[in-house]
Amino acid sequence: MRHLDASDRLAIRQQLDLLKEQVLEELRASAPSAHLMPAEDAHEVKTHADEAEAERAADVYMAEVEVDYARLEEIERALARMEDGRYGICEDCGVEIPRARLLAQPTAVRCTACQTAAEARHRT
Ligand SMILES: [Zn+2]
């Protein structure tokens, strides 16, 4: 990562640490909340609508957690690449990822062209 100087690396590193904190915080905050757990002493008769609502909420929760874990993985991968000196090098074609792209998106592991190609592959 010759194209990144020490202060760039430090800034990106801090950015990644911050992102990681945020994701971990979101994961803690989105842990199943009490209202999703049927209370033992609830006197109200549970309706089908209630059950459907609880199920829907559980689905949303699972989807959110999946997104958060995927983000956490990206952040960890970027941090690991920073450790072993491969940070800022496109994972697919090996070119240096432009500094501006890295500063804007610290978790980027591919150059824009490869990222676009990878996303196109995911869609098909
Ligand atoms: Zn590339």
Brief write-up:
Helix content is 63%, strand content 0%. By secondary structure, the chain is mainly α.
CATH class: Mainly Alpha
Bound molecules: zinc ion
Indicate the overall shape. elongated
* Class inferred from helices and paired strands: mainly alpha
Domain unit count = 1
| Helical content class | 55-70%
The DSSP helix count reads 4
CATH topology: Four Helix Bundle (Hemerythrin (Met), subunit A)
- Using only CA atoms, what is the Rg? 20 Å
Secondary-structure element pattern, one letter each: HHHH
CATH architecture: Up-down Bundle
Write up what this structure looks like.
α1 runs antiparallel to α2 (48-83). With 124 residues, this protein is mostly helical. The chain is elongated. It is built from four helices and no strands. It has a single domain, classed as DksA, coiled-coil domain (Four Helix Bundle (Hemerythrin (Met), subunit A), Up-down Bundle). 63% of the residues lie in helices and 0% in strands. The chain has helices spanning 6-29, 48-83, 99-104, 112-123. The model has no long low-confidence stretch (mean pLDDT 88). The structure holds zinc ion (ZN). Zinc ion is lined by residues 90, 92-93, 95, 110-111, 113-114.
Keywords, please?
mainly alpha, 124 residues, 0% strand, elongated, binds zinc ion, 63% helix, 4 helices, single chain, Four Helix Bundle (Hemerythrin (Met), subunit A)
Topology record:
Blueprint: H1 6-29, H2 48-83, H3 99-104, H4 112-123
Zinc ion (ZN) is lined by residues 90, 92-93, 95, 110-111, 113-114.
